[in-house]
Amino acid sequence: MKPHDEIEYLLSPDALFWAMEPFGPPLGEAACHVWDATRFPSQAEQQAAFDGEPVKPERDIPQARAMCRECPLLQSCRRYALDSRDEHVFLAGETAEERRRRWRKSGEVAKRRRQVAELCALKVPTVIIAQLLGRDESSIRNDLRILGGRLPQSLTSA
Ligand code: SF4
């Protein structure tokens, strides 16, 4: 049985999704949510550019960057891009590949510990957390030790 099969008995798909992706995109009036006909010939092409699949990269990426520069959510979007370590979409003026070049190991560890904390708060057994995150159990236990006092109240009082 795969970890995702086992976890269906423990959690709803929504709860699992948010535990695995604990960083939400910025809320508010994102420039990329409105079609800018002066920059993209069609709404679909704009969407494709922000989905990380530009139809004509040499034309679409500079246009997407320009939209991000004018977006009121630019700072929070940059933070989200950093925390989420999204590997596909165009965010805060950068392609996924451009962001990946700046990734540091510390960011990967921070994201994993956040996932561990969220899954633990949902009372997912350590063995399944390890399988979901592709780690061995001892490294998850080590994360939990390090998280210690930073675990949600529901866990520390259990
Ligand atoms: S900064 Fe760019 S990607 Fe982020 S919400 Fe604004 S327009 Fe969209």
TrEMBL record:
Cross-referenced Pfam families: Whib
Domain 4Fe-4S Wbl-type span(s) in chain numbering: 31-101
Protein's name according to its UniProt entry: WhiB family transcriptional regulator
Organism: Streptomyces millisiae
